[in-house]
Amino acid sequence: MQVRITIRGRDYTVRGDDNPKDLQNLAADLDRRMAETAERTRSFDEYTIAMLTALNLASELHQLKAQVASRLDEIDREAASVAAMVEAALPADDEA
Fold this sequence. Notes:
Helix content: 55-70%
Number of helices: 2
Number of strands: 2
Shape: elongated
Number of domains: 1
Distance between the termini: 62 Å
Radius of gyration: 24 Å
Structural class: alpha+beta
């Protein structure tokens, strides 16, 4: 499926299996982020704006991955604790 999106005033046609509305929303978010980067850096060079925005997105992704990994470790510890409590509450094999 083809979807038309606009980023920084340029139209693009992208192909993919994603929901067209989702792609348009992603493009709008990227456009907003690039505009914010351009304003903060006062740069008119689109390549620099794109690279700085990509770096910001990569940083966010890295932070989210670290948060997910930390939460998964926490869940693993909690699951092990629950498993130990359940096992302690069950009758021993020789009692059955």
